[in-house]
Amino acid sequence: MTFQRKQTVYTYFRNWRKDGTWVRIHDTLRDWVRVEQGRQPSPSEAIIDSQSVKSAAGVSQSVGYDAGKQIKGRKRFMTVDTMGLVLRVLVTAASVPEREGGKQVLKQVKQMSKGVSRLHTIWADGGFDGNPFLIWVMDVCQWIVQVVLRPEQTKGFVLLKKRWVVERTFGWLMGCRRVVRDYELLPETSETFIYLAMIRIMVRRLA
Predict the structure, then answer these.
(1) What is the spatial distance between Cα 182 and Cα 84, in angstroms, rounded to a whole number?
(2) How many CA within 13 A on the CB side of residue 27?
(3) CA–centroid distance for 186 within its chain
(4) Model confidence pLDDT, tens digit, residues 47-93
(5) How many CA atoms lie within 13 A of 106 on its CB side?
(6) Given a cut of 60, is residue 98 above it in pLDDT?
(7) What is the largest CA-CA distance in the chain?
(8) How open is the CA angle 198-202-206, to the nearest 5 degrees?
(9) Contact at 8 Å (CB) between 157 and 39?
(10) Kind plus residue range of the DSSP H or E element containing 134
(11) What digits encode the pLDDT tens for the residues 138-168?
């Protein structure tokens, strides 16, 4: 087997990132997986959450400190359907607040047009709570945000309605070594590798 030169592979990767080819491949496969499972291509509900990950040594652009998680690196704002398939992902510095990053990633979801034509409800955790954020989502996206809070005085693992779905997606991604830690110079490249990880997962499902 003959492999292409590294620079050739990188050029294709970069060009396809810039022109949206990777995202279009990802979205097409997600629709196929949903239809294969007897679902409509467009979900009616979605879940949003964030994950802070450490950045590799030498990565300095768009890096911050998440005081809550005590992690220096980047934060992934993830929106998934109720099957755990990614709709859109946004990578920022880990210091970006939940609601600010949530607005940015939900704008991207809204721009999917017919891909989310049936979407009406966004499930979220307490980090996205608060009337300003809920009203913004209603006004800008015309969606309802349902916040699921952890029951008070509970200890250990608790299965929370809808929120476990996005946590499972984070678990899938942790099975891909390239995205366990953020190694990329550009946040946009980090996003592309997450889409690539999901492409791999969905192709294996369809096969």
Answers:
(1) 21
(2) 17
(3) 16
(4) 999 999 999 888 878 899 999 889 999 999 999 999 999 999 999 99
(5) 31
(6) yes
(7) 59
(8) 170
(9) no
(10) helix 131-136
(11) 999 999 999 987 766 666 556 677 888 999 9
Among residues 78, 88, 55, the alpha carbon closest in space to that of 185 is found at 55
- The CB-based long-range contact list for 119-122 (8 Å cut-off, 24+ gap) reads 119/42, 119/43, 119/44, 119/45, 119/46, 119/143, 120/44, 120/45, 120/144, 121/44, 121/45, 121/46, 121/145, 121/146, 122/45, 122/46, 122/47, 122/48, 122/79, 122/146
Dihedrals phi, psi of 178, to nearest 5 degrees: -65, -25
Name the token pair of 143: 């969606």
Output the six-digit token pair for 165: 């779905």
pLDDT tens for residues 167-196?
A: 999 999 999 999 999 999 999 999 999 999
Q: Are 124 and 148 in contact (CB under 8 A)?
A: yes
How many angstroms separate the CA atoms of 29 and 165, rounded?
Answer: 19
